[in-house]
Amino acid sequence: MEETISLQDLFKTLKKRAVLILLTMLLAVTVAGVVSFIFLTPIYQASTQILVNQQKVEQNQFNTQDIQANLQLINTYNVIIKSPAILSKVIENLDLDTTPAALNTKITVNSAQNSQVVNVSVQDPEPYMAVDIANTTAEVFQEEIQKLMNVDNVNILSPAVLSENPSPVKPDPYLNMAIAAVVGLMLGVGIAFLLEYLDTTVKTEQDIEEILDLPILGLVSPITDGDMPNAREALQRRRKKG
Which residues cross the membrane (predicted)? Predict the structure, then answer.
């Protein structure tokens, strides 16, 4: 016999296992909250902006080759900023107990399309250290680029500033808890349907019909202890009539 599941059966299963589903979701949210607030280390971010000036040319307008050359120059600067030549100087100036490779993982360099502004972002567990590394990186790059490429077209547009009450950029406890709620809900629903699938006990007359594939001719109602005397009297009357 082919088994079919209706929407009504699905809703019955969800209603029957509602407590389990809610407990699973609450457990997931609680675990995510505890891990995010207590065990994960807050990471702070500081950013500084560097302005790369375009080289002076005689004509008033830039042609396509000039624009392409400026973009390539900015891309080159993005690589140089994170190079050991710059980061080693940053470590030396700040007396950091780290390596250029490790410091490289904390720094992100990017620039908007067709923009002369380069953004240098630093993430660190200490907010003041993130600010110091960002500003020192920009200053060292401004000094060293003159020696490396014989150019003086870099200016610090906006240094990083330490705010009074810095907020960590990660982890985001509330986002983690929201994700955990969705995952917990899905897990709870999955467990509910799994338990329902594994439950092979017979509970209703519909279960008997599905298992035996036979129609139900009658039902035996449960009899409590208080109904026993009345049941005996009814049985005796039937025997006398018979």
Answer: 20-44, 174-195
pLDDT tens column, 50-96: 988 765 544 455 456 655 666 778 888 899 999 999 999 999 999 99
In a domain, 29, yes or no: no
Beta bridge partner(s), residue 124: 44
Peptide bond into 171 cis (omega under 30): yes
Q: Which among 140, 95, 103, 138 is positioned nearest to 124, based on CA atoms?
A: 103
Q: Name the domain count of the chain.
A: 1
Query: CATH number, domain at 62?
Result: 3.30.70.1130
Give tens-digit pLDDT for 175-226.
Answer: 999 999 999 999 999 999 999 888 777 666 666 666 666 676 666 666 666 6
Q: For residue 107, what are the β-bridge partners?
A: 122
User: Tokens at residue 49, please?
Assistant: 């902006």
